Amino acid sequence: MNKTNKGLKFAILLMTGILLSWMLTAMYLTGSINLQCFYDTGNLYDMSSGYYRQPGIRWSYDPAVGTIQTEGEEASCYFYVNSSQKSWNYLYLTIGDLNKNSQWKIEFLDQNNELLFTRNLEVQNGRNILQLQEGEIYAIKIIVRTPSSFSIKRIQFREKEQNFEWNQVPWTFIRVLISYVLAVFIIYGFVRHYKSVRQLTPRKGIWALTMQKAYARMLDCVGALFQGIPQKGKSGLRKLFFLAILLIPYVTYRMGNSTLMVVRREILLLAACLLLIALMSWEQGRQRVDWTNPLVYSWMILWMMVLVSDFVMGRTIQSASILMMGAMAFLYMAWNSMKRTERLTRDLLAALRYLYWAGSIYCLFFRPYEPGYRYTGIYGNSNLFAGYLVTVNIAFLANLSENLGKEKLKKRVLAENVLGLVTIWGFLQMTESVTSLVAYVAEWTVFVWGQFPVEKRKSYQRNLKRVVAMSLICIVIVGISGKWCLSNIPRVWEVQLEEQERQPLTGQNSLSLVTEAAGQNAAASGLSERLRYKITSGEWFDLFAGRDEIWRNYIRSWNLFGHYGNLESLDGKTMHAHNALLQMMNDYGIFIAVPFLCMLYYSLKYGIKAVFVKKKFGLFFLLAAVNYIVQGLAENTPYLSYSWLVYYIALGGLFSQPEEANV
Amino acid sequence: MRENRKFHIFLLFLTGALISAMLVMMRLGGSVNFQEFMSAGRVYDFEPRELQQNSKNWIYEKENKGHRLLKKRAQIKFLLDGEVQTWDFLYITVAQLSKESADGLLKYYDGEDKKILEQPISLSQGNNMIQMDSSLSISKIGILLSDVQGEFISIAKMQIRTTPSWFTPMHFLSLFAVAFAGVMAMLILFDFFVRRVRKGRKRSVAWVILEGIQSGINVVGDFLGGRLGGRLYQQQRESLRRFLFSVLFVWMMLGNAAGWLKSTQMYRYHVLVCALLLLFISFVSWEGPLQNRSWRGPLMKSWLGIWLGMILCDFFVVRQLESITGYAMLLAGSVFVYFWQNMERPDRMLLNMMEALEATFFLGILYCMIFRMKRPAVDYNGIFKSPEELAMYGVLMAVVFLVRLDWFLAGRLAVSGRRGESAARRGDFAFCMKNITGGALSLFLVLRSGYAVGIAIFMMIGIFYIPNLAKKLYNMARKCRALLLSIVMAAIFAYACTTAVFISIKYFPGILGMDFKYGNELLLTGLMGEEQELYLQQYPAGLYGVRTREVEKLPIIWQNYGRRLNLFGHGGECLVFRRVIQPYNGYLDMAYHHGIFILLPYAAYQVMVVILGIKCAAGKKGRGNLFPLFIGIAYLCFSFCANVEMSWGHPLWLCYYLLVGLLGRPEIEKT
Asked: Which position among A66, A116, B98, B120 has the lowest Cβ density within 10 Å, counted as fewest Cβ atoms?
């Protein structure tokens, strides 16, 4: 047993222990054994922190100190209850920085803004609890009777009273974790003893090998149909099918209504394309594939767990696990069987680039740029467009990296890649998406890092100079003409293809989640200003643009097998988790985190290894992993989005690690 | 090869018939509508019972099957589909009217039973179409006839709908004949073209895919089978199989009784357990490295076609329960079939299955004796929720016992032919006793269910079986009298046992106070009219929650399902007579839930089971095994007028669909 294996086992056990301890702690403290929701305290509604800063009558928010100042008597402010549930039993009002105890009156209003009932409250710092009468509450009006200064930490409506204090949590958690560790040690001891008594030496990874064998046998049978296609034809068809794979999610998005039936058909088409690529790429008789490594194990366990969750939740054919186990795995196997695996990578990257150019032309002719608004490109949402751009950026970076070391860098390749990279940056800054910007910076960092191992030959230096020169030319051309073209050319046709989200740029009158959080009061203008404000505001809400509230809500709803859909989170809106890990845990139960994190870790590790061993297009695998992880930190990388698709396709290139066999 | 050709010709004709039916239905519906060929809109058919109700002046005469109108102005009211909505057409089929025509008024009532409109109408013998005022939302209608004192009217059928109906059997048939000729010509041309294109091609894509699937099963099967079945002796394997089959049958019947087959929450778990048990049985049956078998035979193709067809519909229709059956059968069933076909002695699997059925049957009888009381004049449901399910089970078990007896007698006769060997063995009496008693109890259950179709099928199977039995008994009387004596003794014992069961299910649960009723149980009685009144005088609450058997409802139910047929099926059941009623027809059930073209593999499978069953019974393949033939015939007959498609809820269903493992061509695939 080597060191790596021990570390992996320890990490898995620790992660499982933490999740299990959280689960047991939550159930113990809430006093209910509920596997559908560990933190079972009834429904909750947290009013969005953004509303605490709104002005009222003789009521103002001072952003410099972060407190509310009331002047004169009877200062008041309205707070609207935007959740779908309107009947609540308790109101938890958490107040801080109160300069003196004061008398408040809180009015509860109905749908027509008419008074339902009132409550008087002697407010003090900390949590103030009010028991509510029956009735549907649409808004509350807080009236502060005497001038005072305070900050509202939280306004929370609850169904049930909180039956524990938060300071109980750490100690309970630690006790559970210690019990878990002891239990693990005891079991481990028993297992070791049993093994030594029986002198067992089980063959490791045999189930993965069986799966591998099953896939290979099936491909052997059906792949025979495609063996007659010439290599060139195969390459062309692969590009075509990859392009189809990339277009299918976009077409589905454009159709607008992601009903169950649409998703099912989308899955079917994707699976068909993946299988066709696999069958075409399968090279019979090659036996060098080895799937006994932690990446494959974690991938398989992840999708097995997803399958179980899908079954429990009643998701059938729309399940992503069916796509993965029934189609993607065949692609991986076929890819690994290829003598020259880079052929498939090249075709995938080519398809990504074709997609980008087609999208750019579409934008140029049909999607006008409106000054003052964030550009939404081929989508109706700027964040989605930015995510797409950053993903496509990988194709250009990987291609450029592969070609930089060549003796003869073709002009067409040089021009295409540099123009692609420059225009992507141009589009990206018009979207003002911070998450994608971070992913973009990370990609460039990886790219630059990836250049170091390359032997500094003359040709490399020459090519680098040519790239720099070409970049300057492109920047000038795109910088001068790009925005003008986007602003004017689409207007020639006067075609408004569909409605799009009109998110104003920073500093304009904003309604969007991101820009709202960036602070209406901050006199921000432009991306850099917004970034500065985010970092210096000192508030989580500002830094994460309200995502912290969504995350909290998602964490509260953790359960064993997941939920059927997204949760009602910020401001009563049903939205995704804005984090890939939390989204997975919400959809498939908390323990999905263990294989998911393992998979991410090993994809990064093997990606780095691919760069080190100078695997062809090795940078692509690392970039795909980095892009997926960084975007997944603060944006949703929903199933079938580009970053998701490219990441999971790229995993196939890392699946076979013969040197890691039986680790 | 010839088998395949005949099968393709059959499929060609069936496809032609289905396409023609589809085209004719769309023609009658007046639009190209794949969601519902007939485009019938909302339709409510009045229940025959409703048409026999009395009012103050409309008195139903049972012997004349019509109403006597007592006053000059006689009125009767009818409740519609239970909702307040608009209607466009009212169709009244008058079977008999004592005068040439009767004038009157059609009254419209709103949700609060207030009259909102009166419309003059005139009724005459035959079909009467009344165009209604479609602007008014109504919940009831009233028919008031004038100048009809002492007159007689018999309403055979009444239907209210939002679109006109152009359907008459003659019209349909004439259109169908034309469409069929055209479609067949097109199909034959198409078939000719396809054959020309495929000429010289050795392997079809479907064949290669089937081989690929088998290869996958092969690898996983060898891996898991080697670890389970590979570590067992033959005896252990058989015991375990018997036990697992017993658990599977009990689980299925339990799920059926508990109502899990209709529960969106529970059904998938129920099916999961069934599928896992089936997989476990498969892996336990592993005897050695698996080899691919030919799945190109018509039986196997149609079997796979049924489940794939079910799954395919999922891409077009949102359904809750329907497709789970397909997934489970395709995944677990195909593995099971593959393993069965790989067994050295496939008849051992069948034997274990039958033994498990026998064991669970006697357990079931014991359960019925203690917990399930027979109510006077109410059809008996036994361990199931309806009499038809019990009848199906009775028929299945009768087949099991009769076949076992047949094997036994054939074996003994074969032995008695050899010199120096005695035909009689120790344990023969016990064996005869078990099988004859089992057969008698099966007959008893079928009779107690009161389900006419079940009784008829039982009799039909009996007619097929008796000559065979008589011949064997005659031979036995000549060669082995001791054995014959055992059989006679066993028959006497079976009679006694049946009498004991008869008495105990009538009184025992009541005496013990352990009578157990299921939720949503279908209780039926054959009592009508005066008989019913007399019965109610004796048992005032005896018919609470009990429905009367009404054969005349069946055509209306079938029509309701038939007019909703479409290309990819529906989720859920159809509403007939203001409630969910199952179609009482296997073909309509499948076509309604999975689209009309599922009938292609479904009918093909039924036909192939019977054909191969005949071959099997004749002795070429299964050395005279009657089981597949009898099950095939029973299922085919039940398909016409029973809810036979109780997926994963009835042993007959499972035995029938698993038969493919025995009948499917077991040749080793040469690749």
From this structure: B120
Output the 3-class SS for A65-122: CCEEEECCCCEEEEEECCCCCCCCCEEEEEEECCCCCEEEEEEEECCCCCEEEEEEEE
CB A139 within 8 A of CB A155: no
Q: Nearest Cα to A592, choosing from A316, A309, A312, A327? A: A309
Beta-strand relationship, B66-69 and B58-61: antiparallel
CA distance B659 to B662: 5
State yes or no: pLDDT of A523 exceeds 50.
no
Collect all residues of chain B within an 8 Å Cβ-Cβ radius of residue A264.
314-315
Residues B503-548 have pLDDT tens digits of: 999 999 999 888 888 888 889 888 877 788 888 888 877 788 888 8
* Per-residue DSSP letter, A57: B
Cβ neighbour number for residue A101 with a 10 Å cutoff: 11
Where residue A136 falls (left for φ over 0; alpha for ψ -120 to 50; beta otherwise) is beta
Do A316 and B324 make contact, defined as CB atoms within 8 angstroms?
yes
Residue A45: its H or E element:
strand A44-46
Q: A127 and A47 in contact (C-beta within 8 Å)?
A: no
The DSSP letter of residue B146 is: S
Percent of chain A past pLDDT 70, that is, above it, reads 89
pLDDT band at residue A517 using 50, 70 and 90 as cut-offs: very low
DSSP A425-465: HHHHHHHT-HHHHHHHHHHHHHHHHHHTTS---HHHHHHHH
- Please write down the HEC assignment for all residues of A456-470: CCHHHHHHHHHHHHH
Q: Is B204 on the interface with A (CB under 8 A)?
A: no
Q: Contact, B632 vs B613, CB < 8 A?
A: yes
| Nearest Cβ partner for B205 among A207, A214, A225 | A225
Determine the pLDDT at residue B144: 93
Average pLDDT, chain A: 85
The pLDDT of A563-582, averaged and rounded, is 85
Q: With 70 as the cut, is the pLDDT of residue B228 above it?
A: yes
Per DSSP, A505 falls in state P
Residue of A nearest to B216 (CA): A214
Taking the CA of residue A316 and the nearest CA in chain B, the distance in Å comes to 8
Indicate yes or no: CB of B268 within 8 angstroms of CB of A221.
no
**Interchain proximity A221–B671, CB inside 8 Å:** yes
Residues 6+ apart with CB under 8 A from B352: B238, B241, B242, B245
Each residue's pLDDT tens digit, B361-414: 999 999 999 999 998 889 999 999 999 999 999 999 999 999 999 888 888 877
How many whole angstroms from its chain centre is CA A538? 24
Report the distance separating Cα A131 and Cα A119, nearest Å: 9
ipTM of the complex in this document: 0.84
pLDDT at A518: 43
CA distance to partner chain A, nearest, from residue B267 (Å) = 10
Give A366-407 pLDDT, tens digit per residue.
888 887 788 888 888 888 899 999 999 999 999 999 888 888
* SS3 state at B118: strand
Give the whole-angstrom CA distance, residue B455 versus residue B434: 22
Cβ of B219 and A207 within 8 Å?
no
Query: What is the interface size between A and B, counted as CB pairs within 8 Å?
Result: 57
- Three-class secondary structure of residue A205 per DSSP: coil
Nearest CA to A290 out of A332, A322, A346 is that of A332
User: What are the φ/ψ torsions at residue A654 (nearest 5 degrees)?
Assistant: -105, 0
From the list B209, B219, B318, the residue facing A210 with the nearest CB is: B219
Chain A nearest CA to B315, separation (Å) = 6
C-alpha neighbours within 13 Å on the C-beta side of residue B383: 25
